[in-house]
């Protein structure tokens, strides 16, 4: 079954879109603003990886998050996340990421997204494998622009920009 959520505006919620068992669907051209949890959250600890699969999350605007990730791909497989603008006007104070792939998220494509003012921009956790992350622009990370805790993923052509000098230490090389 194909489901499509297009041109929605979801504001002032705890979690913008909570998607547990979703397959062969799309979330496109929607706006998530002022959420205090994940703007788009997938999967659930009671369901195995792959219950959320083959979903396209494209061309969405996620702005002014008060906490949580912009897009949290928990247990997501074969999902494409592309062309999203995940931008906070002010820096978020927790440790979440603009795009986060935890809990055995596998074989996802994350490309051509802009992520700004999250502590971590892209965070791939232990157990996430086969993910292809490329062509993203990440700006102003206070912790890490990219944090990877798992083998078997591909990262290419991502651009990291730090315009806030008070957070620039994460980009500095370690001196011997």
Question: Can you describe what's shown?
Answer:
- With 176 residues, the protein is mainly beta.
- The protein has a single domain, classed as 3 Solenoid (Pectate Lyase C-like).
- The protein is 0% helix and 42% strand.
- The protein has strands at residues 4-6, 9-11, 17-19, 23-28, 31-33, 40-42, 52-58, 61-63, 71-72, 76-77, 80-82, 85-87, 97-101, 109-111, 114-116, 120-124, 132-134, 137-139, 144-148, 154-156, 159-161.
- It is globular.
- It starts with a strand and ends in a 15-residue tail after the last strand.
- The relative contact order is 0.13.
- This is Parallel beta-helix repeat protein.
Low-confidence stretches: 168-176
The number of domains: 1
- Kindly identify the CATH topology: Pectate Lyase C-like
End-to-end separation in angstroms reads 57 Å
Largest sheet data: 8 strands, parallel
InterPro entries: Beta_helix, Para_beta_helix_rpt-2, PbH1, Pectin_lyas_fold, Pectin_lyase_fold/virulence
Organism: Paenibacillus brasilensis
Domain Right handed beta helix: 54-164
Protein name: Parallel beta-helix repeat protein
List the helices and strands and how they pair.
Layout: E1 4-6, E2 9-11, E3 17-19, E4 23-28, E5 31-33, E6 40-42, E7 52-58, E8 61-63, E9 71-72, E10 76-77, E11 80-82, E12 85-87, E13 97-101, E14 109-111, E15 114-116, E16 120-124, E17 132-134, E18 137-139, E19 144-148, E20 154-156, E21 159-161
Parallel strand pairs: 1-4, 2-5, 3-6, 4-7, 5-8, 6-9, 7-10, 7-11, 8-12, 9-13, 11-14, 12-15, 13-16, 14-17, 15-18, 16-19, 17-20, 18-21
């Amino acid at each position: 079954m194909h489901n499509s959520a297009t041109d929605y505006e979801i504001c002032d919620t705890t979690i913008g879109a909570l998607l547990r068992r979703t397959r062969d669907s799309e979330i496109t051209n929607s706006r998530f603003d002022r959420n205090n949890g994940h703007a788009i959250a997938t999967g659930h600890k009671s369901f195995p990886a792959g219950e959320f699969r083959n979903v396209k999350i494209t061309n969405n605007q996620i702005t002014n998050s008060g906490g949580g990730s912009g897009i949290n791909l928990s247990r997501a497989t074969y999902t494409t996340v592309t062309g999203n603008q995940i931008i906070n006007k002010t820096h978020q104070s927790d440790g979440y990421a603009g795009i986060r792939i935890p809990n055995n998220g596998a074989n996802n494509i994350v490309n051509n997204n802009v992520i700004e003012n999250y502590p971590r921009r892209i965070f791939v956790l232990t157990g996430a494998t086969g993910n292809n992350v490329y062509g993203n622009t990440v700006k102003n990370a206070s912790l890490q622009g990219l944090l990877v805790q798992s083998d078997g993923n591909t990262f290419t052509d991502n651009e990291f920009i730090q315009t806030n000098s008070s957070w620039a230490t994460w980009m500095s090389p370690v001196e011997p």
